[in-house]
Fold this sequence. Notes:
By secondary structure, the protein is an alpha/beta fold. It contains four helices and 14 strands.
Amino acid sequence: MQFLDQARIFTKAGNGGAGCLSFRREKYIEFGGPDGGDGGRGGSVIAEASADLNTLIDFRFRQHFKAKNGRPGEGRNRTGASSPDVVLTVPLGTVILAEDNETELADLNTPGQRFVIARGGDGGFGNAHYKTSTNQAPRRADPGYPGEERTIWLRLKVLADAGLVGLPNAGKSTLLAASSRARPKIADYPFTTLTPQLGVVYVDEDEFVLADIPGLIEGAHEGTGLGDRFLGHVERCGVLLHLVDGTAEDIATAYRIVRDELLHYGAGLADKPEIPVLSKCDALPDDEIAARAAELARAARRDPADVMCVSGVSGAGVEDLMRAALAHVRAARRARAAKADTDRVLP
C-alpha cells in the first residue's frame, strides 16, 4: 500500500430543507389552520479516527466530499427527512488543519474520536411554527440554512513511542529490523528509507512502537534532500534514538547536523529526551569504538557512559539500547496519564 501522510480536501455540508407553506383543506373542516412542516437538517461532514488505517492514500484521488441537503417539509405537519452525515475515516494520529495549513483544528489520536469538519444547515420552519393566537393563518415559511463548506488539510503523524533519527545510511533501518519484526528495505546507499517505517519492540514483558524516518541531511529544513516533512512522525515520541555512523570520518559533525535540523524544525523535538547511539560498531575494533564513543559524548555534551554502542548486524548492544529506550517510554506514558487525569478533574 502506498504511503501518503498529507492531503488537501474540500468539504461541503448539506443545506437544510425548506419549510412548507400549507393549510388544511379537508371536507367538513371549515377553518383549516396552517399545517406546513419544518425542513430536514442537511448532512454534516465528519472525520473519524480508525486504528485500521495507516495512510491517507484514500484522499489522493478524491478530494471533494459533499453531504446531501435535507428534505423540504410537507403539509399535514410532516417534517422533512434529515440527510445522513458523510463520515471520513482517517488513521489514528491524523491532525486536521485549516486551509492555511498551520491552524490546528483537531488532533484525532483515539480510536473512534470524531470531529465535525463542516456542519449541516438547519431546516427552515414551516408556517405551522408561526401560528399564534393573533396570527392564526401565517403565510411565512423559511428556507433552509446553508451548510458549512471548508477546505482543510489532513496531516498524519504516526503514533510511535520512540523514534530513530540520524543521517542517511546511519543504520536506522538495520536497527529497526534487528529490534523488531519489521522488515524495512536495507541497502548500502543513502535514502534507502523513503517513508516512515514502524516496528513493535518487545522488551522485559513490555512493548513499544519504534519509528524509523528517512534520514536528514544538512539544510533539510530548507527542503534539501527529502526535507524535514517526516519529522512530524516523531513529534509524539517519548524519546529519540540519535544514530551516528561509527565509521563516519567526523563523528561530531554528523551529530551536529542532525541536531541543528531538529532545532530548526521546532515542535519541541530538540528538547525531547535523546539517547546518543554509535552504530555499525561491528566494523570497528574495540579500542576505536571507545575513542569514537568518547568523541560522540563530547559532541552531545553527555557522559561517555550515556552513549550506547550497537550493531544492527550482529545484534550487539541492541537489547540494552531498547531497554534504555523503554525507560523513557514508560516515563512519557506516566506523564500522559497524569495529564489526562488532570484534564478530567479540571472543569
